[in-house]
Amino acid sequence: MTVAMESVHEVVPLKESCPSGGTHDVAYVDTFQSGRRSIHRGVTCNRCHETSSAQLAELPDEATEAVVSLYGRWLVHVGPIGRLRAISAVRKLLGLSAREAQRAVKPDGSVFSGTHAAALRFAEDLRAEGVPPQSVV
């Protein structure tokens, strides 16, 4: 079976305070391509003249909410047949207790919500655990 890989590139600009009293212009980029998720943060400031960029392991909460606000929240669903295996996989992938994992797998089959790139990454992780996602919407 061939699985089509999606590519996602979502960018949000934010403002953050600068230690010198100015305001940093910050761009967060949340990307999913070729089965990999990458998160980039770029900073520029006209006051302190900082220019930097970094790869991050996770989007900060404020950036996640900005991406979701701009591009929408995405859900990963599993079919009813995969529900029990999904509970086990969700427990492992998210580091949850058995009870928390049971609550995380909703009656409608949704098991994860977040940015598009995060949802695609989670769907890939589920697939690697032997739980094929039914949809990412």
What does this structure look like?
The protein is of the alpha+beta class and 137 residues long. It contains four helices and seven strands. It has helices spanning 61-71, 83-94, 98-104, 116-128, and strands at 8-17, 23-33, 36-44, 51-56, 74-77, 110-114, 135-136. A hairpin with a 6-residue loop joins strand 3 (36-44) and strand 4 (51-56). It starts with 7 loop residues before the first strand and ends with a strand.
Rg calc: 18 Å
pLDDT averaged residue by residue: 92
Task: List the total number of helices.
Answer: 4
Strand composition percent = 25-35%
- Helix share of residues? 25-40%
Structure summary, number of beta strands: 7
State the end-to-end distance: 21 Å
Order of helices and strands: EEEEHEHHEHE
Major pleated sheet? 4 strands, antiparallel
Shape verdict: elongated
Structural class determined from secondary elements: alpha+beta
Which regions are unreliable across 5 or more consecutive residues at pLDDT < 50?
A: none
Adjacency order of strands in the biggest sheet = 1-2-3-4
